[in-house]
Amino acid sequence: MIDELILQMHSSRNDEKAVVMKAYMKDHFDYFGIQSKKRKEIQKRFFSENINTSGPEQKRKFVLDLWCQPQRECQYVALDYINTWSKKEYSREDIELIYHLITTKSWWDTVDGLASNFMGKYFNLFPEEIESIISNWRNDEDMWVRRACLLFQLKYGKNTNKALLYSLIDQYLPDKQFFIQKAIGWTLRQYSKFDPQSVRDYLKDKELGSVARREAYKYL
């Protein structure tokens, strides 16, 4: 099934744009050179014709098959496809898939979407899993897993578990990794839209790095 989609994307490739896209992503990934609008046109048509009748196993296999492809657009298609799933299509076992996707072909352009969408929705559906999973993942050796722990509540708004968020930030403040510091600031900036006083109180005695501080204080 994936072969047909790959053929359609190959037919729309643009080698000049592929070079620019690859350079923008620090040469981590190859590209077809398909811009977002065109890619979404291709995938929308493909989804409507091939995917809607697939069962749970086929849906997850499709995601994994896309994740194995060398061209980065395939991972973007997988992320957009996951975002079409209804609540009833989620499974408790999806946490294993989430971890695999976060830790494979990892970069901000996939991890951030996985954390704030797939992981965030998963924990909304299975909140009883948060404590055990985050307690393990927050100490993971993989920096991207730790970043995901910070970002999964990004769209929770007033429902953010601020105690958990602040405890994660406290743990990661000494971490000088840019992507961790950026996530610290991003989460604080986002939560400050809903509870600015709580964020101000939290930040009173905190020594944030410049990257985190710039983001955290944007709306305060």
Task: Describe this protein's structure.
Helices cover 66% and strands 0% of the residues. It has helices spanning 2-11, 15-24, 36-50, 56-68, 72-82, 94-103, 108-125, 130-137, 143-151, 162-172, 178-192, 196-203, 210-216. The model has no long low-confidence stretch (mean pLDDT 96). With 220 residues, it is mainly α.
Tell me the series of helices and strands, N- to C-terminal: HHHHHHHHHHHHH
Large-scale geometry: globular
Radius of gyration from CA coordinates = 19 Å
Number of helices: 13
Number of structural domains: 2
Structural classification: mainly alpha
Architecture (CATH level 2) name of the largest domain: Alpha Horseshoe
What is the top-level CATH class of the largest domain? Mainly Alpha
The total beta strand count reads: 0
Portion in helices: 55-70%
Mean pLDDT: 96
Sheet with most strands: none
- Return residue spans where pLDDT drops below 50 for at least 5 consecutive residues: none
CATH topology name of the largest domain: Leucine-rich Repeat Variant
Distance between the termini: 50 Å
Beta-strand share of residues: under 5%
